[in-house]
Amino acid sequence: MIVPFAHVLIFAAILFVMGLGCVLARRNLIMILIGVEIMLNAAAVALVGGSAYWRQVDGQVFVVFLMAMTSAEVAISLAMVVYLRRRRGTLEADRFDGLRG
Amino acid sequence: MTLLDLLALAPVLVLVLGASTLLMVGAWYHEPRPLVAGGVAVALIAAVIAGVAPPAPTEIAGLFSSAPFARYFAVLWSLLAALILMLSLRYATERDFAAGEYVSLILFSAAGMALLSGATSLVGLFLSLESFTLALYILVSFHRNNHQGAEAGLKYLVLGAVATGFMAFGIALIYAASGTFHLPDALQGLQAGEHLRPWGLLGWGLVLVAVGFKISLVPFHLWTPDVYQGAPAPVTALLATGSKGAVGAALVMVLAGSPGTWQELVPLLWMLALLTMLVGSLCALPQENLKRLLAYSSVVHMGYLLTALLPGSPEGYSAVVFYLTVYTFASLGAFAVITSLSDASGEPQELTAWRGLGYRYPVRGAVLSACLLSLAGMPLTGGFIGKFVLFAAAIKGGFTGLAVVAILASLISFAYYLRVVLVLYGSDESRELHPGNALEHAVLLVCVTAILLLGLYPAPLLELIATLIP
Question: Which of A13, A19, B92, B115 could form a disulfide with A39 if both were Cys (CB 3.0 to 4.6 A apart)?
Answer without folding.
Answer: A19
